[in-house]
Specification:
This protein is mostly beta strands. It is built from five helices and 20 strands. The two termini are 34 Å apart. 44% of the residues are buried.
Amino acid sequence: MVMATVAITKTSFAQYSRDAILFSTSQPGSTSRIKAIGNAQMAVGGDLSSVSGNPAGIGFFTRSELSITPEFNATDTKSTYLGQSNSGKSNNVNFNNAAVVFYTRLNTPRGQDKSKGWLSVNWGASYNRTNNFYQNTYYSGVNTNSSVTDYYTSLANQALDQGYSLDGYLEGWAYNQGLINFNTGADQYQPSGAFGGTQTNRTTSSGGQTELNLSMGANYSNKLYLGLGLGFTTIRYNTTTNFSEDNVTLANRQYVANYSFDQATRGNGFNARLGFIYKPVNALRIGATLTTPTWYTVDDVSSEGLATQYAGSARMSDGDTYQTQYNLRTPLKVAGGLAIFVGKYGFITGDVEYLDYSNTKLTSNEYNVDNDNRDIRTLYRSTVNARAGAEARIAGALFFRGGYGIQGNPLKQNGSDIKTASGGLGYRFGNYYIDATYTHVTTKQNVQPYDIGVQYSPVAALQRKGDNAYLTLGIRF
């Protein structure tokens, strides 16, 4: 779960660096069982999550297996803005995971030890939802310290200093609609709005990232397991933002100014994954994976507009649409983990994963990406994701599971880690099984609807909580 917001921008191009990081924060898909143990799966093996996690884990299978996992997500984003509290909620149902592994035993020459050498090569495929973008954000308050017209003024004066026309830009629309004016004596633009206006922001996001994985895993002497996987990824991201200010001008004219931003992003990409699991003794498993960057081709259509209504006057509006294509390279990932098994009674396991978000890179033949890549290098950093969990057999074929995970904050300043607490139950009966998991996810972030300097920029403090439920139904054959 990733918190994403859209601030008022000069043009739609200004948010591509933010989107690049948003699309780089996906996680491996997994079954309810693995989600219940904090999504720690590097060294566990023998679960269908291995198809998209550590492909070496499918080498543990001694029978073919199939499962499906639907999910229910409920999110609540609480906000505090200019001393006023609000919240936005979102509920949705998705298909989270479907996976299959086909067991293929290798022939052992007559007379040789059937527990030595290459014993099996198994093949797997899975569909996974690796990122959810569903979120509703709402904040509102009375701003006695600044007006959004101050922001439009700063953009206009930057244009004046750099010698380019306001026409076709947000600051030009603000000038056309009387939200800013030109002071001939001072030879600069100045705001028309007074302080004390009511500012309101509504942002609705939807969509997600999915991945189709094809993997193979081999078993050598029940000691060493090696795996290789390919991932084919998709992005579907939609967001709509409306920021309004209900205020009066310095000439005491009442107005409502509304800035709107709509974005539809689609992308396709691919990656590869190498993994191993080693069992020095039966009670201990050591696993690791190397995941290449994901190389995406992304198509983006964004539009923004500004509309102003003065009391007793006609509504004025301006807007434009921007369409572009760019290539995105996400960071390389390295992960490792340990699992300790206590006979048939259960296990404990933990993973760590390293990636450097500042290595994310954009390229494009349609627009200059230098500013975006500079922002990525300047604003983002390397992080470590940590996950831990345990499974215990509590009565015959009944299992109890629990876990905790931390997804590191990619920002050098602001934001927070994403923390996930999880728990679940599993039951085995014959060739069938059913697993149910609940997760509680929390994160927080401060956002600015517009930036006019630290002292005057308003700040919305957002705290997001997610309550998610997963149900896996599986069969061995």
